[in-house]
Amino acid sequence: MQPTSEQLLKVHKRIESYIHRTPVLTSTLINQLTGAEIFFKCENFQKMGAFKMRGAANAILNLPKSKQKNGVVTHSSGNFAQALSLAAKSIGVPAYIVMPDTAPEVKKAAVRTYCGQITECPSTLKDRERTAAEIVKNTGATFIHPSNDLDVILGQGTAALELLQEQPELASIICPVGGGGLIAGSSLAVKHFGKKATCIGAEPKAADDAWRSLKSGKIEQNESAETIADGLKTQLGDVNFPIILDNVSEIIRVEEPEILEAMKLIWQHMKIIVEASSATTLAAIIKEKERFQAQKIGVILSGGNVDLDNLPF
């Protein structure tokens, strides 16, 4: 049985004092370019710079106090490492973060800024999981998966919930697909609070495991994932995939040059910085703009944690 509208509203109330209610922006020039009326939910303005603060906060707050005191642990080299660290700091619990030894120093520094306690390990998933399990055993901390955890999924869904509260007449909400937590949560918000809206995913063609999974009805994997949208290289999980299968109408695949162009358009016309992962959404609209003509479209700009020394354009 999938989560109800009441559960999603309860989650939103639970986390609202720990997150920003991010702005919804528009661009006349981008609307003219696409022929659609686009409403950008700017999670790049979220605390720690990405939507993942929502799910991290909910997952910690929904733990019993007896478990909170032992802390939380995750394995992540990206935004969830920062999100769980900051959420834990805000709530007053320890955060243990397993990061691959290949993770950029800038990401490790960000986690330390939020008081996350880093344990480095080799970069394979097996090593990450083994290291996290050891921390759980030694500390009594609770493991929280970055995307395949129902509390995380419901937290991520509050971004789309807020967008629909402001723009209830949206025809679609488009969000990036990586590990599946954001699109699963967004699809639940659309299901319960969108009048006639559909939930659509955007994914790099170079890492199209979710597109293939939706077609086959089972979780597919990528043999390789060479994409600038590095936040979307992760795989769907057994908790979020059934939700996606039931509630996501389709996934649009975009090429690398299309992602770059969309990233530049957002920079140029909206004067904001978003990650390449976020830009897949606008790239998807531009790629299939005939079908979105004259429609009100919501877009989740998932984050803005960009290394300015290594911009892809």
TrEMBL record:
Keywords assigned: Lyase, Pyridoxal phosphate
Biological process annotations from GO: D-serine biosynthetic process
Protein name as it appears in the record: Threonine dehydratase, catabolic
Coiled coil ranges: none
Matches recorded under Gene3D superfamilies: 3.40.50.1100
Species this protein is from: Christiangramia flava JLT2011
Lyase in keyword set: yes
SUPFAM superfamilies in UniProt: Tryptophan synthase beta subunit-like PLP-dependent enzymes
Named cofactor requirement(s): pyridoxal 5'-phosphate
Pfam families given in the database record: PALP
EC number: 4.3.1.19
InterPro entries from the UniProt entry: TrpB-like_PALP, TrpB-like_PALP_sf
Protein family (similarity comment): Belongs to the serine/threonine dehydratase family.
Gene Ontology molecular functions: ATP binding; L-serine ammonia-lyase activity; magnesium ion binding; pyridoxal phosphate binding; serine racemase activity; threonine deaminase activity; threonine racemase activity
